[in-house]
Amino acid sequence: MSDNSAHPGQPPRARSWPRLALVLAAAGSLVVGTMIAFTPNASAGTTLGASAAEKGRYFGTAVAANKLSDSTYVGILNREFNSVTAENEMKWDATEPSQNQFNYANADRIVNSARANGQQVRGHALAWHSQQPGWAQNMSGTALRNAMLNHVTQVATYYRGKISAWDVVNEAFADGGGGGRRDSNLQRTGNDWIEAAFRAARTADPGAKLCYNDYNTDGQNAKSNAVYAMVQDFKARGVPIDCVGFQSHFNAQSPVPNDYQANLQRFANLGVDVQITELDIEGSGTTQANNFGRVVQACLAITRCTGITVWGIRDTDSWRASGTPLLFDGSGNKKAAYTSTLNALNSGGNPITTPPTPPTTTPPPPTTTPPPGGAGCSASVSLNSWTGGFVATIRVTAGSSGTNGWTVTTTLPAGATVTNTWNATASGNSGNVQFRNVSYNGRLTAGQTTEFGFQGTGSATGMTPSCTAS
Ligand code: XIL
Fold this sequence. Notes:
Distance between the termini: 54 Å
Shape: globular
Bound molecules: (3S,4R)-3-hydroxy-2-oxopiperidin-4-yl beta-D-xylopyranoside
Strand order of the largest sheet: 1-2-3-4-5-6-8-9
Order of helices and strands: HEHEHHEHHEHEHEEHEHEHEEEEEEEE
Low-confidence stretches: 1-42, 353-373
Radius of gyration: 22 Å
């Protein structure tokens, strides 16, 4: 049976951690990024989403499908937020109530509403010990492993192209001092269940960022150290992981940690994005407002903190409503916490910067660039590197004749090996490597672009991809 510690109706987790001495190497960031000086906005945003967007971030909320008929709720949702997460509707029990019988009705209501209102969608959550359907709770071993992988594949495939980031695995680590995995039916299928889920998700939706998401990992402690070690290991072995979600459910017993920013930064330094995924802070008045401000400031100070999601709109919508932990009161009025959040968004931080070698600033070599209006195609690379590994994103641009298909060829430096490719099929994994389009991205009209990517070990600095069209 699974551990149901976060099941509906359970009280919030509140746990104080022994304060560990923060020993963060202040050594420079390993993430290759172009730093540009931040100048305060001339035009401060007037909504959470607009203000976050000015900083290259999203500001999202959890949404419940059954509230989409509440006009006050919907009014705030579509005015303030540019990202949504289904609060319960994409969980295993909701989407696969009987084995292999999928039901996306409520999740689709949220996705369709978001798309109609220009909001991106965070997918939550593919594999989790909690909120499993009864049939899965009663499974174990290979049958459960296969059922989980089928679930990940089916759901991620169904929503392919519509999800900005998936919480592929949620809450897999144990609380307490040991720094180990949480016991669950999934964990008992073998320690590699997490990476198996990530690989299945990448195959099913290569365009979505793939996140590991957890709580009580917001500061540095034994649990976040264990997650950190997993991410480091995944990066070293080429397991596809792009982001780490920090739930950030705070209250008096579990306050915003003093090393919150430093903790998120050390994950970002591993070469993953970080996201604040389920923010709520119990309390009221100035104290609550200041805490929300601190959290927002922390995110904006981290170049790879790409967005913040609050876990509901009004206090009365919250899973822990008695703690009044959100930005709007029960009538939909803005609280002091709203104002401090907006002010922090408008005043803080590092902008998200363009990749180190963006297509616009690094002209591809002459042999690969068709003359303006020429035929063929061109390819340019942006590289995200860390010690021992990299992710390359290649942008293919069709020339004046468009393409029926394309092949990008690049030579990897000695020692570099491709471990994973998405949105293209690779021939070879070292030296001279060819990437061909897949079924859905070969046809491009004149000037149209598409992107594919690959991950590898070693260093890929200095690649100069070329493109041929067919
Ligand atoms: C919560 C929902 O908000 C509740 O409506 C539901 O009853 C239980 O789950 N961590 C998570 C979220 O990842 O999915 C949980 O959401 C809150 C804790």
